[in-house]
Amino acid sequence: MTKILVVFGATGQQGGSVIDAVLNDSELSKEYSLRAITRDIKRPSAQSLQSRGVEVVEADVDDPDSLSSALAQAHTVFIVTISIYDENLKARELRQTKDVADAAVAAGAQYLIYSSCVAAERLWGIPVTAFDSKADSEAYIRTLPIKSAFFSPGMFMQNYLTNQRPQPIPGKEGDEITYAIANFISPDAPIPLIDTVKDSGKYVGTILANPDRYAGNTFFAATAFYSYREAAEIITRITGKRTVYLQIPLEQWISYLPPGYDKAMSEMMRWVESPGYFGPQSNEEVKWTVQQVKDKLSTFEEFVESYATDMF
């Protein structure tokens, strides 16, 4: 009899990648049957999962009453929460995670895998709200009478298709267009990157294949480190569109952000610059994690090649 793996965020980047990894792995697909959790079972993305043989259940992390049936007979649960950068970020994510984790324990689940972040304030005394919100939830999960492991993704390569998309720099008519990636941190600050769509499931799949071995561990998930300067050079080389990194004043960078994002995002980027995305031991943490994964991880070069036409 297969174990039921319940995947929250099943139609998102991380949850969808976990589902893909299990379906595409001959061993994992024999060991686990998939239950995808979505807030709207009528969405095309949810119906697509059903067409692939995945059980799809409607539930909402903001509706505790919907969770008990969603988690019935679950063996393993993958939990990911969406960060909304407002004054309720920490309280909301902790509440959502506690409700899901508590419901999983009550349902008799035996294993939790949580998408987490480093505990910046607790471990190093530097508040990073966007990280600490998930770290607090991880700390709570670690107190529960259930085995658990943690997946801590680096910065998403997909950001280069959205909020870090290269933007054209105004110039004279007829001049070659130059594109810019802008931020206030050093051009050489190393940033761990993950193709969250293709690779999240490879890390989580490694845990699913060896749950006892990795119980209590955190996977610091990134293929490698790329500075903004290196990213711009890679984009230029592969796409043929001249791209540069512009280090701009903090105040100017903040002016480009959506309302409410300034504090959380500036905290995060300062932290990325120093002591590092995963803390002072970022290099060692990523190196160990990469060694655990048997599948090939996507490089930033490969990502750019795949999405070159979508980047501009």
UniProtKB/TrEMBL annotation:
UniProt entry keywords in alphabetical sequence: NADP
One Pfam family matching this protein: NmrA
Matches recorded under Gene3D superfamilies: NAD(P)-binding Rossmann-like Domain (3.40.50.720), UDP-galactose 4-epimerase, domain 1 (3.90.25.10)
One GO location term (cellular component): nucleus
Boundaries of every NmrA-like domain copy: 1-304
InterPro entries: NAD(P)-bd_dom_sf, NmrA-like, NmrA-like_oxidored
Family the UniProt entry places it in: Belongs to the NmrA-type oxidoreductase family.
Protein known as: NmrA-like domain-containing protein
